[in-house]
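Supplementary Methods, section 5.1.

A reviewer requested that the exact input to the structure prediction be made available. We therefore reproduce it here, unchanged from the version used in the analyses.
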Amino acid sequence: MTTQFTIKGARIFFIIFLGICIFILWKYLQPEQLGKDFSSGNGRIEATEIDIATKAPGRIEAIIADEGDFVSKGQVLARMETQQLEAQRREAVAQLEQARYAVETAKSLVNQKVSEKSAAIAVLSQRKAELEALRKHLQRAEVLSKKGASSMQDLDDSRARFLSGQAAISAAEAQVAAAEAAVTTAKSQLLGSHTVIVAIQATIDRLLADINDSVLKAPCDGRVQYRVSQPGEVLGAGGRILNLVDLSDVYITFFLPTAVAGKLAIGGEVHLVLDAAPQFVIPARITFVADVAQFTPKAVETATERQKLMFRIKARIEPELLRKNITKVKTGLPGMAYVRLNKEIDWPPHLQIRIPEKI
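The structure derived from this sequence is encoded token-by-token as follows.
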């Protein structure tokens, strides 16, 4: 009987001891309490996503980058077929040469019309000189006729030649006016030819821009997240080919209650502890605090209800840190974001920044 009581007591003692050990282990594994000067919220690591898309309709010729590849700014990711654009460019180049020949022809025509105008002016000057001679001859004929030294026939002939000279001047002036109009027309044609060259050159520039846009390049350093299309597919304008994650803009979004969010400032410190690497504490900076609550009760009437309001906070990881560890950055990782409400209080030891050489 005594032996049974001894065994039963030993079992009870073992159970109590095991319970105490479990309690101690549970207390040890519990996160340290932060106190009123700190607050925290859970979230996930995110990054800005960029769609690599076509500017104009076309067929995909090749996709060089694959899912998961790290790419640098300016690196070629995909190419679109450009045979039609190249043909249009060659056609425009031929038209440009033709337009240049037209300009040279127009210049020659302008020079010709200017020469014709100069000749017409010279003829007019000659006719004026001849008219002056005829006028003097008429005056002498009139004097001689009055003195009876010449016949009336001579006077009539002199008067007829003078009138003919006046008519010749009118004809020469008309030729000068016609030559001036021809020069103006030729210059207009020359200007039009220059305008055609400018228009064709603009077309060539546009086609070259379209050809260059057919080579899709990475706008920033990042990682290809997934393919949307495949080589050979025909896409419309704005058709997506790849989805790129901008690893220079990595952040975490978390939520905090009204009493905490109201004390935060843009640029404030945030320390991140990721579930995948709890031994490290990563620094970040607050870049956004929502001005509208994300979780709002249907009726906000009491102080208790107002405490239920939650505001979205966005904290960005330091860009310099990201650049040093860009190949190790991963999005979608869950973790905790810790904020300090009183700057005069030091961060607790377990939240002091601890950054590995490589994240």
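Residues 83-147 form the longest helix (65 residues). These observations are discussed further in the main text.
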